[in-house]
């Protein structure tokens, strides 16, 4: 059995029992019914990881809330049998006793949210007619390093993943693996860090025959600006790996910093970031010629804010001149300006009170680029 795609189902679209079923139906509609051979990487339900972080810190109430939430979801999706299974998976939460956990114990607790989500997703897929098999991540995704900041071991993971895929060949079942979690020292769970499900998905895609890794979220892709703050923001059609990483670094999209590492170290392939129907296509290199600016993003830094233009060639003298002029006309003073060696971003540090004006001013450069045919994805 070879694979055509790895589909990562993010926690942002898993808020209720119905969301698991809708996600399963989408996997069937957009992949299985079209003859694509697919594997699923699933995240914890929305908000669960935050609760588990509090449980790691000793919050008994947060631990109970996780159990109650998953119990309700499991009961609605798969009835009493699934509810019992999920309850057993979450049994370790009963031992949270008001004190902070050690690193290894914390990793075991944090891994529970994804493990429960994996079990529920398998049931949801079966319920909509898709044969599925749950594969615990710590058995197939191997790692090294600190148990709470683990890094995937591509060699060992590739061997285990190939074995899983070959084993499932006769049945044609869809493998479901939880993201964010890996096997650490002595087979105990290790954590890949926030956004780790994206990292899991791209690694498993690169280590297989998959042509695509589809990172499914609650929005249609990466936008030229935050639509809630910048009217007229639009979806970016395509980006290069470096541009996507710069976008993530400056707050445009929450992705694990190693999301694109497997695609550079192991094998390049297309990544789709967005909803089931629409997404931003991320390829090894940007397709826009001449290089242009793709988006504007911001993140807090101390008492100020870093506002950045992102895109191949964003750090060119022409863009710097236009950006400085736009900020001046908007009455925004910047304290520092810097770019990265890739020249895929140009960042200005501004007073936090001027963030909104700075974003709008820099976004106008993107619109100007579109009008000139130089910056449109």
Model regions low in confidence, pLDDT < 50 over at least 5 residues: 370-377
Count of alpha and pi helical runs: 12
Q: What name does the CATH topology of the largest domain carry?
A: Carbamate kinase
C-alpha termini separation: 35 Å
Which secondary-structure class do the elements indicate?
A: alpha/beta
Query: How would a crystallographer describe the biggest sheet?
Result: 8 strands, mixed
Shape: globular
Please characterize this protein's 3D structure.
The protein has two domains: 5-218, Carbamate kinase (3-Layer(aba) Sandwich); 295-372, ACT domain (Alpha-Beta Plaits, 2-Layer Sandwich), CATH 3.30.70. It contains twelve helices and 16 strands. The protein has helices spanning 17-30, 48-56, 60-89, 103-110, 112-127, 137-140, 154-167, 196-206, 241-249, 261-265, 317-329, 355-372, and strands at 5-9, 38-42, 132-135, 143-144, 151-152, 174-178, 181-183, 189-191, 212-216, 238-240, 270-274, 279-283, 295-301, 304-310, 334-339, 345-351. The strands form four sheets. An eight-stranded mixed sheet has the order 3-6-2-1-9-11-12-10, with helices on both faces. The chain has a four-stranded antiparallel sheet with strand order 13-14-16-15, sandwiched between helices. Strands 4-5 form a two-stranded antiparallel ribbon. Helix 1 packs across helix 3 (60-89), helix 1 packs across helix 5 and helix 3 packs across helix 5 (112-127). Residues 370-377 have low confidence and may be disordered.
